[in-house]
Amino acid sequence: MTAATGAIELYDTTLRDGTQGEHINLSVQDKLLIAQKLDEFGMDYIEGGWPSSNPKDEEFFIEARKLKLKHAKLTSFGSTARFVASVESDPNLLGLLHSETPVITIFGKTWKAHSMKSLGISDEENAELIQRSVAFLKQEGREVFFDAEHFFDGYKDDRNFALTMLRSAVEGGASRLVLCDTNGGALPHEVAKIVADVLTVIGVPVGIHSHNDGDLAVANTIAAIMAGATHIQGTINGIGERCGNANLISVIPNLMLKLGRTFASVDHLNQLTSLSKFVYEILNMPSNTRAPFVGKSAFAHKGGIHVSAVMKESSLYEHIDPTLVGNHQRVLVSELAGQSNIRYKAQELGIALPDKSELFKNIVHSIKELEHKGYQFDGAEASFELLLQRELGNFTPFFEVLETKVHIESGKDAKNVDQAVLKVKVGEEIEHIAADGDGPVNALDKALRKALIHFYPEIKSIKLVDYKVRVLEEKRGTSAKVRVLIASSNGRNTWGTVGVSTNVIEASLLALQDSMNYHLFTIKAATPVIGAQQAT
User: Within 13 A of 65's CA, how many CA atoms are on the CB side?
Assistant: First the structure.
C-alpha cells in the first residue's frame, strides 16, 4: 500500500536527525538495533544517516546490508551537489550512491535568503542544482525524495521562489517532496494553508518534516496531514537538534485513534510504549514519565474524585484506552487519595479489603499524615503495601532495630571506610553487629544483612538497584528533611521503599528496613531460624 492509495507513509529519521540532538550518541551497533526495531514496528522508511559526513555512518550502511528488514526501506541522506558543473563527480552524491540504499533523500535550498547568502548563487543556478542532483541519482536507479529545507520560511518570504524549487525537484524525478519547517517556528494554521496551496500546483505526494522549537512539531505534522500531506518524517521520542523533531510516538496514535488514518504496516499499535522505551534504553536515557500516550504518568490518577470516576468508567478521565498503545492505567496513593484510591491499589495488589468504612478512614488518614511529613508512595509501593497490611493486622515487622551507630572516617590520613554498628532484635534474640562499607548507607546495608541473614537466609538474594535522595523543605538548609527512595530486587521482582527523616542515615535505614520486611513478607515460609549459628 502506498501514499496514493490512502495510507500515510512513515519515514523515521531517529538515526540521522535524531542523533543531532544534544547528549544523543549512538554506536553503529546501537543504530542497527534501532533500525531492526523500527522495521518490526512498521516504519516505511528508515533514514540511516549521512554517509559522506562521517565514518560511523559509512560503516552503518555497510553493516545494514546484512539486516533482514521485512518492510522498511533503508534511506541515505545528503545534500544536493555543491556546483552545477560537477554534479556527476560530487563527493556527496557519489557517497550516497555508494551507500547502496534503494531510496536517497537529498535536501536543497528553498528559502531565497539561503541560496543567495549561504551558497552565493542565483535563483536559476539553485533551481538547476536541485534538478540535476535529483536527476543524477534517479538515473542511477534510485528513488529520490527531496527535502525542501526551510520551506515554510522560504514560502512566506517568496512564494514563487519556493514553489519554483519544488518544481525543479519534480522535473529531476523526485517522487516525494518533503516540506521542512527547519527552524521550527511555523504555526499549525500556516502549515495547513501552505501545504494545501502546494498541493494545488504540485503533482507528486507531499510530506512534512517539522522541528519542535515552538513546541508545535506534532501539531504541525497533523495539520499538514489534514491538509493533504501523505508522508511524515519524525523521530522516536521527538529527539533531534535543538528542541527536537516531530515525535512519531505522539503523531502515530493521534492520527490512528483520533482521526482514523491508516499506515501501511503499523499493525500492532500496542507496541508503541515498548518501542519508546527501547529507544530510550539504547540511548542510555531515562524515559520521559510524562510523555503523552506512553509515559508512566500518562494514565496515572492521583486525586480521589478522579479515581472514583475512573473506577466506574475509565473514559471519564482517560482520552483513550491505554492498552491500545501498550500502556496501562495506574492509581497513585498520596495526600490527595480517597477511599477509591485505596480500593483500587488494594485490588491491584491482590489484597482483599473488608467493607469497613472506619478502616478506610484510618488508612487514608495514615497516608495523609505520612505524606505531610514528607513520605511519597508513588515510587514506593512496597512501603505502601506494608502499611496496608499492617492496618489489616496481617503484618508485623520481622525484626526491630534497637540502636544504630555510624562512624564516618575522613581526613588526609583516613582510610575512607565507614562503619555501621546495629543492635537488632529478632524474636527474643538480639544481635550486635558491625560492618564496614563504602559510605554510610553501604555500611548500614551490610550490617543489617549481617544481623539478619542467619535468621532469614532468604535475604541473601536481595540487591539494592537504585538509591535516590530528595531534600525537602530546602529553605531549612542542612536541617531540612530528606526523603530516601530505594529500589531493591531479588532477581525476579523489583520493589520500591521509602524513608523520611532530618537525618539521611536514618531515612536510608527506614527504607532499607521496609525493603527487607517486604521481601520476607512476600515469602510465605519466611520464619526466623532462632538459635542458628552466626553466618560467616
Answer: 8
Q: What percent of the chain has pLDDT over 90?
A: 61
Q: Which residues contact 411 (CB under 8 A, 6 or more apart)?
A: none
Contact 273, 326 (CB under 8 A): yes
Res. 536 pLDDT band, cuts 50 70 90: very low
pLDDT the model gives residue 306: 61
Domains of the chain: 8-283 (3.20.20.70), 300-371 (no CATH), 440-522 (3.30.160.340)
Q: What angle do CA 291, 295, 298 make, to 5 degrees?
A: 90
Give Cα 239 to chain centroid, integer Å: 10
Q: What single string gives the DSSP state of each residue in 109-177?
A: E-SHHHIIIII---HHHHHHHHHHHHHHHHHTT-EEEEEEETHHHHHHH-HHHHHHHHHHHHHHT-SEE
Reported as a single tens digit per residue, the pLDDT across 15-30 is 999 999 999 999 999 9
Mean pLDDT is lowest, of 95-104, 178-187, 297-306, for 297-306
Number of H helices, E strands in the chain: 17, 16
Task: Say which residue, 388 or 367, is predicted with more confidence.
Answer: 388
Handedness of CA 125, 131, 137, 143 (dihedral sign): positive
CB-based contact 147:103 (threshold 8 Å): no
